[in-house]
Amino acid sequence: MIRKVVIVGGGTAGWMTATYLNRAFGDSVSVTVVESPRISTIGVGEATFSTIRHFFSYIGVEEREWMPHCSASYKLGIRFENWRAPGTHFYHPFERLPVCGDFDLADWWLHLDGKVEEFDRRCLVIPGVCDAQRSPRRLDGSLLTGTMGEAPQFPYAYHFDAALLATYLTGLGTARGVHHVRDDVVEVGQDERGWISHLVTKEHGEVRGDLFVDCTGFRGMLINGVLGEEFLSFEDVLPNNRAVALRVPHDMAARGIDPYTTATAVDAGWIWTIPLFGRVGTGYVYSDQFCSPETAEATLRAFAAPGRPELQANHIRMRIGRNRRSWVRNCVAIGLSSGFVEPLESTGIFFIQHGVEQLVRSFPDENWDERVIGAYNDKVAAVMDGVKEFLVLHYRAAARDDTPYWKATKTRALPPGMDRRLELWRSMLPDATTIYPHFHGFEPYSWRIMLIGLGAQPDRPLPALAHADASAALAAMDAVPRRVERLIEELPGCHAYLDQLNG
Ligand SMILES: Cc1cc2nc3c(=O)[nH]c(=O)nc-3n(C[C@H](O)[C@H](O)[C@H](O)COP(=O)(O)OP(=O)(O)OC[C@H]3O[C@@H](n4cnc5c(N)ncnc54)[C@H](O)[C@@H]3O)c2cc1C
């Protein structure tokens, strides 16, 4: 039996993994987190994916318990600014496209209208709710209803301070029995087969375990450093390899809280704007082939914090790609040590959640079944490769090509098979059978919305629609503004709701 799990690293990955495993196995498996008091965590990672709620519900904490500890706010989607051309914007919300007959509203829109500036507002209600800065919950806590899709999607994710979340989970985990060693791992012991037998810490001696989880961030101390697993870079297709971040105080009472992340395309990359309860997190993601750290910082300051030279910038070098295998012998890498694509669709924490969910399902015994481990590695790789392809689409499909950086996005290499998919999507929008074929967290509606919003919609509508009755689709589109109006009336402002939640 595997009785003892040792996690190295106390960032978001380390503590999400610890609390999840503790909830899954209780006292039957001992969980220890060894966390360096000297090596800091990455200090960013503030926007999430809507499936994150399953993590909180699995570990059994309610929004009113954890959100106030983490400066958390709601995220209904991502607003993309300047991606088609400077001055344009559209939303990628957590909202499936409504279906009328055999086709969804994106197909109908292309047939009936086709004005790209109006697509998201004609077909979806969440963009209007975002513009009005509404909360997805009413003051009594009940959830927004009345979005358009036949299979409505849970409408939101969160923004939060990742460092505060790690602190909150540390308190929760240790109260539930997770062991916490605040020390540096200075050496790693291996047995004659090369399996990890123990860690040597600076001040707390040896820490022994059966299964070791590498949550050491971009260092990949165990998986790459000790076990020598190959890291496959994605920089040939996703060249952004640096970021600079700022934390900007925000007068929420005066300006409200936007319930969405904004990704603003700029000369050599894009800037994230993430409104938390109390401040805004912002950062410029760029490629060092096209921009220096000094220029990036100056651009970010001018954009997000003019006249605030006292705010400290955090410069980060990003390792973009994934391990060939994230589970090697008795070591599983979760978090940045496993892999990372740039934060454009907020998938870093989603990767952690996926990794630990799959680890529980694939939890080993003393047989260490290689077939199960192989399947785990395939799933983790597919999630990251799928997100990689989705992000490549963002750059390739963006109509913008006004700087050397944006020009290069049109000629860069594509992941295998993607050229054929892109070619098809010039004639018909993506569907479940033509997007990246393995689970990667994004559904076809996301690919459709991005393709249209970025300005790369198919050249013409589906011929079949010329034979179909459009009245239901027109009625559905006409109903969108009425539903938006009703939601705006019913829902409180995001700031008002969060103010109440924070007491
Ligand atoms: C620019 C940027 C923006 C991002 N934005 C988002 C976002 O919006 N949404 C999202 O979901 N994700 C985002 N991410 C990803 C997200 O930040 C990470 O997935 C998440 O924070 C997990 O990090 P981690 O715990 O793997 O690593 P880290 O935070 O780097 O933690 C590493 C831990 O390992 C410990 N450690 C290292 N070496 C040793 C040692 N020798 N001994 C003991 N301990 C050791 C450190 O002390 C630390 O506790 C972003 C990442 C970057 C780079």
From TrEMBL:
<dbReference type="InterPro" id="IPR033856">
    <property type="entry name" value="Trp_halogen"/>
</dbReference>
<dbReference type="Pfam" id="PF04820">
    <property type="entry name" value="Trp_halogenase"/>
</dbReference>
<dbReference type="InterPro" id="IPR036188">
    <property type="entry name" value="FAD/NAD-bd_sf"/>
</dbReference>
<keyword id="KW-0560">Oxidoreductase</keyword>
<dbReference type="InterPro" id="IPR006905">
    <property type="entry name" value="Flavin_halogenase"/>
</dbReference>
<protein>
    <submittedName>
        <fullName>Tryptophan halogenase family protein</fullName>
        <ecNumber>1.14.19.-</ecNumber>
    </submittedName>
</protein>
<comment type="similarity">
    <text>Belongs to the flavin-dependent halogenase family. Bacterial tryptophan halogenase subfamily.</text>
</comment>
<dbReference type="GO" id="GO:0016491">
    <property type="term" value="F:oxidoreductase activity"/>
</dbReference>
<dbReference type="InterPro" id="IPR050816">
    <property type="entry name" value="Flavin-dep_Halogenase_NPB"/>
</dbReference>
